[in-house]
Amino acid sequence: xxxxxxxxxxxxxxxxxxxxxxxxxxxxxxxxxxxxxxxxxxxxxxxxxxxxxxxxxxxxxxxxxxxxxxxxxxxxxxxxxxxxxxxxxxxxxxxxxxxxxxxxxxxxxxxxxxxxxxxxxxxxxxxxxxxxxxxxxxxxxxxxxxxxxxxxxxxxxxxxxxxxxxxxxxxxxxxxxxxxxxxxxxxxxxxxxxxxxxxxxxxxxxxxxxxxxxxxxxxxxxxxxxxxxxxxxxxxxxxxxxxxxxxxxxxxxxxxxxxxxxxxxxxxxxxxxxxxxxxxxxxxxxxxxxxxxxxxxxxxxxxxxxxxxxxxxxxxxxxxxxxxxxxxxxxxxxxxxxxxxxxxxxxxxxxxxxxxxxxxxxxxxxxxxxxxxxxxxxxxxxxxxxxxxxxxxxxxxxxxxxxxxxxxxxxxxxxxxxxxxxxxxxxxxxxxxxxxxxxxxxxxxxxxxxxxxxxxxxxxxxxxxxxxxxxxxxxxxxxxxxxxxxxxxxxxxxxxxxxxxxxxxxxxxxxxxxxxxxxxxxxxxxxxxxxxxxxxxxxxxxxxxxxxxxxxxxxxxxxxxxxxxxxxxxxxxxxxxxxxxxxxxxxxxxxxxxxxxxxxxxxxxxxxxxxxxxxxxxxxxxxxxxxxxxxxxxxxxxxxxxxxxxxxxxxxxxxxxxxxxxxxxxxxxxxxxxxxxxxxxxxxxxxxxxxxxxxxxxxxxxxxxxxxxxxxxxxxxxxxxxxxxxxxxxxxxxxxxxxxxxxxxxxxxxxxxxxxxxxxxxxxxxxxxxxxxxxxxxxxxxxxxxxxxxxxxxxxxxxxxxxxxxxxxxxxxxxxxxxxxxxxxxxxxxxxxxxxxxxxxxxxxxxxxxxxxxxxxxxxxxxxxxxxxxxxxxxxxxxxxxxxxxxxxxx
Length: 891
Prior knowledge:
Layout: H1 4-13, E1 27-36, H2 37-48, E2 52-53, E3 63-72, H3 73-80, E4 86-91, E5 94-99, E6 108-117, E7 128-131, E8 136-139, E9 145-151, E10 156-160, E11 167-170, E12 179-184, H4 200-206, E13 211-214, H5 216-219, H6 231-236, E14 241-242, E15 252-253, E16 261-265, E17 268-269, E18 274-275, E19 280-281, E20 288-294, E21 308-314, E22 323-328, E23 332-342, E24 346-355, H7 358-371, E25 374-392, E26 397-423, E27 429-458, E28 461-488, E29 491-520, E30 523-537, E31 540-547, E32 551-555, E33 561-577, E34 580-593, E35 596-610, E36 615-626, E37 628-631, E38 642-645, E39 653-667, E40 670-687, E41 701-717, E42 722-737, E43 746-747, E44 754-764, E45 768-777, E46 781-782, E47 787-791, E48 801-805, E49 812-813, E50 817-829, E51 835-843, E52 851-863, E53 866-877, E54 882-890
Parallel strand pairs: 2-5, 6-12, 16-21
Antiparallel strand pairs: 1-3, 4-5, 6-9, 7-8, 7-10, 10-11, 13-20, 14-15, 16-17, 18-19, 20-21, 22-23, 22-54, 23-24, 24-25, 25-26, 26-27, 27-28, 28-29, 29-30, 29-31, 30-33, 31-32, 33-34, 34-35, 35-36, 36-39, 37-38, 39-40, 40-41, 41-42, 42-43, 42-44, 44-45, 45-50, 46-49, 47-48, 50-51, 51-54, 52-53
């Protein structure tokens, strides 16, 4: 007040200045030398001869160091009051300063609820909910829930989902700040476009991570192996994903091992996804609702693996009416039934799939072995069972129970008994009888179940509580015996045989608490805790080996490892601006195995920047730690691999991955994505060279480093009667272990330099569609034996030891792999309204003989009246040209 009084006196008694002097347009010449804003105003009044009216209490602290020359007064005031809450108005000949009134906060409305399918009540995962007025949008979470704040003046929401007709919800019909259920109608036509580049909010979230959304409906139109649509074969067609010949061996994502992928069925990890060594997977596609593959820097809510997450969600079942579908193919047949227990509230889904391979495999292999002089056969079969129950108690509470069990059985046996003779130099004729027999039996399977409770704490906070159990077991028995007897004169030259039993298993149980909090339009927060207890039992149980002159029987003790893991995570998806979005979080894990404990803090960061309506730039970096390891000594995808834990001597595996990419909308349904990546891996685990089945695995392994880098490109068309994509990967992947390849760096088996995949889907009217896929890739790296030698240890009884020289590790390449598959689909309805689908196709249409691997063939032959050993490398080929047909009915 002490400064206000002189100003008021001056205002009342001083002679008012002329109008020209108080004009805001008058030029001002003045200089301020690091003065407080209050003193600068007094200096301005004196030197510029203007009248200011203000209270000193409203003047903020601000240092002024400026010079003005012939500058209009209003510009001087604008500069002085910049970054303050002051404003000015002209009142007659006076300029009055005042505090700006606080900006009126826009009124917002919270809209939350679920997106469901109209016909069945199935909740839709990752459906897009978009407000055109504010350009805000969001995806539904894994249970179809969304929460979005929109301005009061917003009039509608646009909702879309792949395979469904987009819907517009008039907000005038919605009770504000309440829960809403939005229903979408199915529309499976190929020319439906669901997500458009015009929705900038949708585009921003569409590629938040290096993620690929897979559509089971679109995949059903792809070419099939023997008439069987398989989810993993659709994954094989994505960039950055490698596999062995004809899909054998599993998936290898961006230079990672097969065990570096976290595969989830309704949130439960599954440890072996293969049927028939990788030709098929355990996923019954009739039960699948959504599939998402993440392969970049993973969101913080995922942990435990280095390379990727394949998140598979099964359908809940029809809540409105009973329906079913059945299919019959060359490999398997399946049937699915679903319907309401209480209409509109609860549903049940039951599905089973069984193998038909044995119907023709057994007689075919018996005839084949007979042509080779063997008696025996090969038998193989598998089955899958899936069950799911859901019940809605209220708008806030829903429970789910999911169950899966699958099993494989393999039996390969044979016996050969043959005789031959040769004449010695003394004209003595010697007769020989060679007898060999073998039997391999293998049984393996998975079982998972989960209980989930969805609870809506309030319209902004969603809780999912899950109890899970997963088990994988393998039981392998093998035996073989070879003998060579001298008939004339009588005598046994040698007898060699082995008998063994191998058993391995992994079981885990977990409790998961996952929160999804949506406090405002700029933030999506996820946080939670996971508790897991595992029991790992790797190893050989029994091995026996007999020779003519000695024998031994070794009972090997199977060791069991009990482990505990606790994970805490928090992540936030923040819309910094309309064109810039961040996802950042931390994943904290603690792992205990016996008396050993490991801690790991794993930061994750992803950023997206929308350059314009066509361009999106994205980058990410993240750390991942894996506490359990998959030990493999083959590339065939067999379940004899071991899951082993980190111990006092075996450190957890770690990886850092960085990505940089761009998405481009080309218009008319065309889009393109490019992403480069670099992955650095440490403490990778592998068997040492020369080790096969190792009972004491900890003393027969080595840890080392790996790196992978490359670029993935995908060109996609998602509208019109012609759809498809082209993907290309240019990649490098290396390994280095102290006890492999003399410690030198060598190429990873799946170091495939070039990998090209082309997929085309063509709709021919409402009933017919055709599809084709062509894949081309650099041959896999492998080691080829160059020569063998024998070593006899002095003083050690027994046969000489045979050694093999391989040269550099993975120094050779298989031939280029390429294959063309073609499919034709016909759909029609019978008079009673049943939907029928007939699918025909050709796998490996031009009969490319892609070798699975090369084996070393060793046999005895008589040449020039001499018994000689013949050695040669023989390529093992798996699948020739293979036509197929399958039929399905929806009732």
